[in-house]
Write a structure and sequence with these properties.
The protein has seven helices and four strands. The chain has about 200 residues and is α+β, with helices and mostly antiparallel strands. It folds into two domains: about 10-70, Serum Albumin, Chain A, Domain 1; about 90-195, no CATH class. Strands 1, 2, 3 and 4 form a four-stranded antiparallel beta sheet that branches. It has helices at about 10-20, 25-40, 45-50, 55-65, 70-85, 175-180, 185-195, and strands at about 90-100, 115, 125-135, 150-160.
Length: about 200
């Protein structure tokens, strides 16, 4: 998903969305903006392909290893920016979805957990995202079979969940046990609490 407007320069876009990242060191904050700028300029590329300098590649990986480089901290400025775009008298959709991020393979990777049906080798984490889009006022006048163009604003909220592996030698959980697990709808409810109520005049 590329939120870069066609008229925006990558650096100014990165500053607008990531200058509010919660970093205790100004050098780390500048590195966040530099990485965001590179991603905006080269969407879809890997970190080694985004930078011409080996130093920048190493600096990016070092940042992501830091304890402060959590999704909440990195996205803090972007989420605030998205919140500011939800202006009164506007109509918006907050679209929620959980995606399985997969790094499946025979070798376990620390920090990941089972995904999908939990079979051996299926590992990753669940990423629950709330995407804000603007709903045009004239859409109500369109016929039901017509598609409506919406304006993608950005992420209003996002959280990841790592599943716990089943202890070796234990049986697959029964249907009753599976019913007691946290459901995806609970993630929606948690996101709603985090986002809070819409400001007056916002639908």
């Amino acid at each position: 998903m590329n939120l870069l407007h066609h008229h925006a320069e990558p650096r100014s876009w990165a500053e607008n969305h990531f200058a509010g990242a919660e970093m205790s060191d100004i050098r780390r904050l500048d590195r966040v903006i530099t990485i965001a700028e590179a991603m905006a300029a080269s969407p879809g590329k890997s970190i080694p392909d985004m930078f011409a300098s080996t130093y920048d590649v190493k600096a990016a990986y070092e940042l992501f290893k830091h304890d402060e480089a959590t999704p909440d901290n990195l996205q803090a400025g972007h989420r605030d920016w998205v919140k500011q775009q939800l202006q009164p008298h506007g109509v918006y959709l907050l679209i929620e979805e959980t995606t399985d991020m997969s790094w499946s393979g025979h070798k376990p990777i620390p920090g990941l957990g089972p995904i999908s049906n939990g079979k051996a080798g299926l590992q990753g984490f669940h990423l629950h995202s709330v995407l804000a889009v603007g709903w045009p006022e004239q859409a109500c006048a369109k016929q039901e079979n017509q598609r409506v163009a919406v304006a993608v604003i950005g992420l209003r909220h996002q959280k990841y969940y790592v599943g716990k592996p089943r202890p070796g030698g234990t049986q697959m959980p029964s249907s009753q046990q599976r019913k007691k697990r946290a459901r995806e709808s609970q993630r929606w409810e948690e996101s709603s609490w985090q986002i809070g109520e819409a400001p007056e005049g916002v639908r």
